[in-house]
Amino acid sequence: MEVERAGIIWLFENGKAPGEILKLLNMPRSRRKFVYRTILRYKQTGGVKDNARSGRPSSVTTPRLAKRVRERIRRNPRRSMRKMAVDLQVSRHSIQNVVNTKMGMYSFKRKKVHHLTDQVKQKRMSRCKGLLERHEVTNSQNDRIISATRASIPEKYRYMSCIQKPHSVMVWAGVSATGRTPLIFVPPGVKINATTYRELILEPVLQNLGQTMFNGEPFIFQQDGAPAHTANSTQTWLQHNFPGFIQKTEWPPYSPDLNRWTLQFGPSWRPMLAPSLIPLSSV
C-alpha cells in the first residue's frame, strides 16, 4: 500500500493526471477513488501517512479475526455466533461486531411457511384470479380505466355507487351427520325473540326432526348462546320436546360453536360417548 502511494505521488509530481496514473500503474477503475484520496491527502498534509487515530486501537476485532470468521461462515453459514466465540476465545459481542459491522452480514431465522405443492400453487392461482374477477365490481383497486381525461370515460364505468344498510335476509338452517334441514327464511321486519324463534323454527321444523331425519334414534340439538336460544321459555320447550340438547348452563362461555368437543371435552368424554349417543343432561 505504501509503495503504491509513493508511486502515485511521484507520478503526480511529474504532471500526470489521475486517469493517467491509473493506466501507468495498471490499476483497475475501481481504485480510482484510492488515487484521488492519496493525491488529496498529499495536498493537504504534504505526505501520505495515515492520520493519528484517536482512542485505543482494535486489539480483538482485527483483520485476522475477521478472516477466520469469514472462512468459518463460508464453510457453514448456519454456524452459531456463540459457538464461534467459544472456538475463537473471544466474546460473542466481538463476533457480532465483526459479522455485522466489518462483514455487513446478519443472522436470519428460517420462517415457517405453508408447504405448497405444484398442484396447490395452481389451484391458488386459479381461485385467486376467480375471486378478483368476482369482486372486481366492488373493488375499485382492481377496476381501472386508462383514459386521457375522466370526462371521456363512460359514466357507467366512471362511478361505483354504494348504499348504506343494504337489504338483508335472515335464514336459519340445521346440519348433522345424517342430513340437513330445509332453509327457513325469516319474514322481513320480524325480530327474532324467544316467541318467534319457537313459532317460526322450533315448532314447524324441529319438533318432528327425530322421525324425519334420525328415524327415531336419539340425537343432541346444539345451538349457540343467542338470547332467543337461552330464553327460559325456549329452554323449557326443548326439555319437553327433544331427547337431548346442550342447555345454557352446560355451554362453555366464549367457546366456538362447532368445535366444542375438539377443544375442551373431546379427549375426556369421547370414551363415555362411544357406545351410544346419550343426552348431555344425563351425563
Could you describe the 3D structure shown?
This protein has about 280 residues and is mostly helical. It has 4 domains: about 45 residues; about 40 residues; about 40 residues, no CATH class; about 110 residues, Nucleotidyltransferase, domain 5, CATH 3.30.420.10. Helices cover about 45% and strands about 5% of the residues. It has 13 helices and 4 strands. The strands form 2 sheets. It has a two-stranded antiparallel sheet with strand order 1-4. Strand 2 and strand 3 form a beta hairpin. The termini are far apart. The C terminus is likely disordered. GO terms for molecular function: nucleic acid binding. This is MhmaT1 transposase.
Strand order of the largest sheet: 1-4
**C-alpha-based Rg, rounded:** 39 Å
User: What is the architecture of the largest domain at the second tier of CATH?
Assistant: 2-Layer Sandwich
Overall tally of domains: 4
SSE string, helices as H and strands as E: HHHHHHHHEEEEHHHHH
Work out the strand percent.
Answer: under 5%
CATH topology of the largest domain: Nucleotidyltransferase, domain 5
Please bin the fraction of helical residues. Answer: 40-55%
Structural topology:
Blueprint: H1 2-13, H2 18-24, H3 32-45, H4 63-75, H5 81-88, H6 92-102, H7 118-135, H8 155-158, E1 171-172, E2 175-176, E3 179-180, E4 184-185, H9 194-206, H10 209-212, H11 227-230, H12 232-241, H13 260-273
Helix pairs in contact: 1-3, 2-3, 4-6, 5-6, 9-12
